[in-house]
């Protein structure tokens, strides 16, 4: 017990520092912030339709994986600090972008396992710039909650990934190279009725439907100059994209009324609709002098009223609201002990 003012102030400072690692004072939209994972790179966590479970990807070696695999967790029952969550993917190849199907009993995700059981080689940019790998062996699968693959939705050679489901339960949007560029495609929930909905040159990805299923939000690069176009095409031919210059776009679910929402510069990505359907939350480094600091921002559909939401000094991304709009989950470098670990955090959302 503290017996003097100095001791009391010291404890207060220590408490504030510890608290600030999880929840920064400026984060007025967050309440009851809780850390869910405690090691590795954990990302793209998305709620089940009833909001009780999450599905996410992780490369945490303590869980016995060498590259990203898909895991599921019960938000009330599973303590991920104490035990490994249930793996849904095959433990072969590399996976990405998992999402619950409308029945809550199946998972949608992309995987390279049919091409090779080993983790694919991580390529490096010939210019030394930061790049993402676009593996042509990715295809989209549906699995049950025991990890049994029920159906393969895509089998076209080339990148098929980043699939998410409409809240209406009728459509899936995903990114594909089948047109020769990284465009958005929509299909019926059973994989039929393929339709291309974007056609402009550049990487279109990370798409999500609005709460009522009427609109789609996504990130996109739009190379304009001859040099930008040449570089984009040269990297794409090597299975690479440079994600350092992207903006947020919105269109109707059928691809009509396509419009650009942000014009901030640098990398604006990982968008998701606010529960009202009238705003978008996304990750951005447009304000950062260092380039690698990403925080969450929110903006109206008309591109006005930009508001900073998160304030970690390294990285916040992949926000998703629960189906009832009461919670938000996101990935962050906060409270990682100075490592490069990216962990999952969940909070009550305060409008």
TrEMBL record:
Keyword terms of this UniProt record: Signal
Signal peptide stretch: 1-20
Residue ranges the record marks as coiled coil: none
A Pfam family assignment: PD40
Top-level division of the source organism's lineage: Bacteria
Family, as annotated: Belongs to the TolB family.
PANTHER family: PROTEIN TOLB (PTHR36842:SF1), PROTEIN TOLB HOMOLOG (PTHR36842)
Listed name of the protein: WD40-like Beta Propeller Repeat
Originating organism: Raineya orbicola
